[in-house]
Specification:
Structural class: alpha/beta
Number of domains: 4
Shape: globular
Largest sheet: 10 strands, mixed
CATH topology of the largest domain: Rossmann fold
Helix content: 40-55%
CATH architecture of the largest domain: 3-Layer(aba) Sandwich
Strand content: 5-15%
Number of helices: 41
Distance between the termini: 73 Å
């Protein structure tokens, strides 16, 4: 543990050092090569490096001929691109994980690094040089050449799956049109690989299936890879292609008897497909085990199919272990996970089978081998790597589940993968899942709905467990009537729960269906719950349930409901009620709506819709997202057999737990994607990979304070360009910019911004009273939701990067932000020069970057120069920060640097400002005020203007790492009384105001300032200066006051 801490401390020192980015990368590369650190150790640095230096990496790729070539070749395949970048330029792309993350980020964020995609038959890029990799070591050139061949091969799989001859002809055409020798060599190697696979002998296997060559070329590729790998996990999402691979592999590699484990409802599908894979002469014998009695009828069939539900019975497992099976196929292996009572029994049964059967081959199939945590695959790990893990306990004890990169590498030779869209011509889907898996639509809740949700949200009863609180919030967001059986509110509060019209989502759903039902079929997922949605909560329940409303609106015959109440078994020789319902959905054009329980329909259920009269599209939605990957639910529709285009949209109630559930799902999916790509993850990503129920509750129960702190932590030190990227990222159903503004407004009066503004109002009101400041000559830099405008009730000028802040502020201010604008502090309007008596920049400078900058130097110094430029030469600039941004030492460094330039500090407003009321909940912030004193300095010394969180020594002392964390829950109070801890001691807020005003007007008198005037209420000032007749006389001579 101490060694880990030491490595992280060393890496943090490197990251926070003054080395150039190039020197940092070189240093880290040396440590990686020497083995002193691993890619996992530098995961945090990778993520931060990419965020801060994305533009510079894009420029590196544009300016390097080899890198441009690699980007053009591999940009649509980040894993291949990452491997190529690391090999070609290890001094820049120091490890695979870094290169992979960068590839994803560049594709998502930067259109400037972009090459139009190639199309088959277009000559393969054309403009590439004949020797694009010249100058690289021969071994590197060969490795990258191999990556190119594999990419070209995969790009043509779709055409080969239509016709082997078509695929070969297309490659021949591209070879003849290739404009460089390098491209011809790559294409010829891809063609040879395809031709060799086509010639693969597969005795007894059909050569055509459903009008396509069989097995598909990628299945043959898998079979070729499986020759030397007897235990495999196929993580592709290719449906029946995976099953054909598993079945054919068992026979081709010598298995005489194969046991197939699958979901109970999928047994008939497996039987049907197994009988279709082989020729009539070599058709296998297949037995489906419906119950325990069927086990006694064993007559030596080649394939025996058993549902997972049977594995909970010990005698069933004992009988199977005695069956002599030498092949085992575990379909949808996530059902055999090690978590949960029933699941654990299935996992133990599978484990026993893999140990006791004389297996030649083991093949597991699943696009999502675990659903929530890597620990779920403990039994699967033992089956795949028995030489490493003898028991699930040894797998868990090894720590592999806590290190996803190690976990993925342990099974890298056991994993096969191809995406369905690579190999078959599926109908169009909107949005595209590989770009936007969730299709979230932000929906603003109705006022009555919001009031119900707020009642649940604000219930702080100590008797209410977090799990129950989260459940109620989920129900309130999904469909408020679902709360009726769980809350005991007064009659007036319970009454709205009987009215479906309080449900924003149900109203949205009605409009969604109405707009589409004439030409489309519509699927509605139940979300997390079925009670009250697909069925009544209870017989005497009077609250409106969703299925009932749908039938009322659209007719009973048009609405089908598929949940756990639909029977799995039919009478002897007849189809089950479930099979009949699914058949009607898939074939009856009049069955327009399917309300389906997401829990009751496992992945292998085929709910595709073919080409039917009057059906032009399939629309998919859900009342909420579930816990399991959304990709699983989409896979029940967007698969082979789907005949019409697909659109999926899911309403997300903005500002509710819906947002948090979406964020949680996205984070889990992103972490799984990194795992699949063998990329080291950050600590936070690791938490999402290993999230348990308690962690999930904490994620879902975050309050507005925590959301603001989380996003603010992402913004700290990022610079304006970096903040733009952070703001543009998704946060639930909206952007981070919108979420930050919304949560900020909700808590501002009780948070740092509100407390600071109340202190500033005390000072500014006094300045305004003596005429030292005109309200229309105040600038609120980084104004947020028009904070000073609303607090002062005056149309001050404001500027902020976040347009949502200003938009929300306008709705709250009687002045409607008439002088507020969206913009950057580093580039304010030229016309503002010397325009403002008072320039405030509250809680915003810590977002600036001390590193980013061009010819004008670091951004933070540019902002300081801009603040001085727009201030009156003898006006005042007032900066504030939250308490964690500074220490006494860092504030002193800022103060000294400003004083050295000749500008004038305002001592009464310099120091730590501490609240003197509500002492049970302490609060403090830092303040620094100064006047340009007629100067416009350049601020040459960068290091004078660093913050505490940018200094590793301070970070370690405070126990933080700049990532914010979860602060303790606070009561919503408003601090209104303050004291300033100045260099001369503590002074009250009123005294700080008085001292600051006197200090400034005395300076005007000393400097001979002639272009400032005090108003008719300067009598207040006269009372203060009455004993100093020399200052009064000088102010009178300068025309500043009239005595």
């Amino acid at each position: 543990m101490n060694q880990v801490k030491g490595k992280r401390h060393m890496l943090a020192l490197i990251a926070g050092s003054r080395l150039s980015p190039e020197e940092k990368r070189s240093f880290i590369n040396e440590l990686l090569v020497s083995g002193e650190v691993t890619e996992h150790d530098v995961a945090e640095i990778m993520a931060g490096d990419i965020e801060k230096n994305l533009d510079s990496y894009a420029e590196v790729i544009r300016s390097d001929e080899v890198l441009r070539f690699l980007w053009e070749r591999f940009r649509d395949r980040p894993a291949y691109l990452a491997r190529a970048l690391v090999q070609a330029r290890p001094e820049i792309f120091y490890c695979y994980g870094f290169a992979f993350r960068l590839s994803l980020k560049l594709r998502a964020d930067l259109g400037i690094v972009w090459v139009p995609p190639r199309h088959p038959g277009a000559g393969g890029g054309g403009s590439a040089p004949d020797a694009p990799l010249a100058g690289l070591p021969q071994a590197v050139e060969q490795n990258i050449f191999g990556l190119e061949v594999e990419c070209r091969f995969r790009e043509h799989l779709y055409f080969f799956n239509r016709s082997f001859d078509e695929g070969l002809s297309l490659l021949d055409e591209e070879i003849s049109r290739a404009q460089t020798g390098h491209e011809r060599r790559v294409l010829r190697a891809a063609r040879k690989l395809a031709a060799d696979l086509i010639k693969m002998p597969l005795p007894g296997v059909r050569t055509e299936f459903n009008g396509s060559p069989f097995p598909g070329l990628h299945v043959r590729w898998w079979l070729d890879a499986a020759r030397t790998r007897p235990r495999l996990l196929n993580m592709g999402d290719t449906g029946s292609y995976k099953t054909s691979f598993a079945a054919i592999a068992m026979r081709v590699f010598g298995c005489k008897r194969t046991l197939v484990l699958c979901a109970p409802h999928a047994r008939e599908n497996w039987q049907r497909e197994l009988l279709g894979y082989f020729t009539a002469e070599d058709e296998p014998s297949v037995r489906v085990v419906e119950n325990r009695k069927d086990l006694d009828l064993d007559t030596g069939e080649e394939f025996t199919i058993v549902g997972y539900s049977a594995l909970v019975h010990e005698e069933t497992v004992t009988s199977l272990c005695a069956g002599g099976y030498d092949g085992l196929i575990q379909d949808e292996c996530q059902y055999g996970k090690s978590i949960g009572t029933g699941a654990a029994k299935r996992a133990l049964a599978t484990l026993r089978l893999t140990r006791e059967l004389p297996l030649k081959r083991f093949t597991a199939l699943s696009a999502t081998p675990w659903e929530n945590r890597p620990e779920e695959i403990a039994a699967l790990a033992v089956a795949l790597r028995p030489e490493l893990f003898s028991t699930p306990e040894s797998f868990l004890a090894s720590g592999a589940a806590k290190n996803p990169r190690l976990l993925r590498e342990l099974f890298s030779e056991q994993i096969l993968e191809i995406e369905l869209r690579e190999v078959t011509d599926l109908p169009p889907i909107t949005p595209r899942p590989w770009e936007d898996l969730f299709g979230a639509v932000p929906v603003q809740p109705f006022p009555r709905h919001r009031a119900i949700y707020a009642r649940v949200h604000d219930d702080e009863s100590e008797k209410l467990r977090p799990a129950e609180k989260a459940l109620r919030l989920l129900l309130a967001a999904t469909h408020p009537p679902l709360l009726a059986g769980r809350v005991t509110w007064p009659t007036h509060a319970m009454e709205p729960l009987k009215d479906w019209r309080v449900s924003t989502k149900l109203d949205w759903l009605k409009r969604f269906i109405t707009e589409r039902i004439a030409t489309q079929k519509i699927v509605i997922g139940s979300g997390l719950y079925a009670e009250g949605i697909t069925r009544m909560s209870s017989e005497d329940d009077e609250t409106p349930w969703v299925a009932q409303q749908l039938r009322t609106w659209f007719g009973k015959d048009q609405v089908l409901v598929l949940d756990g109440t639909v029977g799995l078994h039919g009478s002897a020789g007849e189809a089950s009620p479930r099979e009949l319902l699914i058949r009607r959905w898939r074939t009856d054009p009049d069955a327009r709506i399917l309300l389906v329980s997401m829990q009751a329909c496992p992945d292998s259920v085929n709910l595709t819709v073919g080409r039917l009269p009057g059906v032009e599209r399939l629309a998919i939605t859900a009342l909420s997202f579930g816990w399991k990957p959304w990709k699983q639910f989409l896979g029940r529709f967007w698969r082979q057999g789907q005949g019409v285009p697909v659109e999926y949209r899911v309403p997300v109630l903005v500002g509710t737990i819906d947002d948090d559930l979406l964020r949680l799902n996205r984070a889990k999916w992103h972490a799984q994607q990194l795992f699949r790509a063998l990329v080291p993850v950050t600590d936070r990503e690791l938490a999402y990979l290993r999230i348990d129920a308690g962690d999930a509750m904490r994620e879902l129960l975050r309050d507005a304070f925590e959301h603001v702190n989380m996003i603010a932590a992402m913004l700290r030190g990022r610079g304006e360009d970096g903040c733009d990227r952070v703001y543009g990222g998704a946060y639930g159903a909206t952007s981070r910019a919108e979420a930050f503004a919304r949560h900020f407004v909700e808590i501002e009066d009780f948070a740092t911004s509100g407390h600071v503004a109340r202190f500033q109002k005390t000072v500014i009101d006094r300045m305004t009273a003596v005429g030292m400041v005109d309200p229309d000559r105040i600038l609120d830099g980084g104004c947020g939701p028009l904070t000073l405008e609303r607090r002062l009730n005056a149309p001050v000028h404001g500027i902020d990067m976040n347009p949502h802040m200003i938009e929300l502020g306008k709705a709250l201010s009687p002045h409607q932000g008439k002088n507020a604008s969206v913009g950057r502090l580093s580039a304010m309007p030229k016309m503002w020069k010397h325009a403002f008596h008072l320039v405030c920049a509250s809680l915003v400078l810590d977002f600036s970057s001390i590193d980013a900058g061009g010819a004008d130097g670091p951004e933070r110094l540019r902002i300081l120069r801009e603040l001085v430029r727009v201030a009156h030469p003898h006006g005042m600039i007032w900066l504030t920060w939250n308490e964690s941004t500074h220490t006494d030492q860092t504030l002193a460094a800022w103060s000294d640097a400003i004083a050295r330039t000749g500008m004038s500090l305002v001592p009464g407003l310099c120091g730590l400002v501490r609240a003197t009321d509500h002492r049970e909940q302490p609060f403090a912030f830092w303040s620094l005020a100064f006047s340009p004193n007629g100067l416009e300095p350049r601020f040459p010394r960068v290091d004078d203007f660093r913050f505490a969180f940018e200094l590793e020594r301070v970070r370690r002392k405070r126990g933080g790492n700049g990532n914010g964390g979860t602060p303790p829950k606070k009561r919503r109070i408003q601090h209104e009384r303050f004291e300033v801890l100045t260099a001369d001691g503590a002074v009250t807020d009123a005294e700080a105001s008085r001292q600051s005003i006197l200090r400034e007007v005395s300076r005007w008198a000393a400097q001979g300032v002639r272009d400032r005037r005090l108003g008719r209420d300067a009598s207040i000032l006269l009372e203060e200066l009455g004993s100093d007749w020399r200052v009064l006389r000088r102010l009178h001579e300068l025309g500043i006051i009239q005595v």
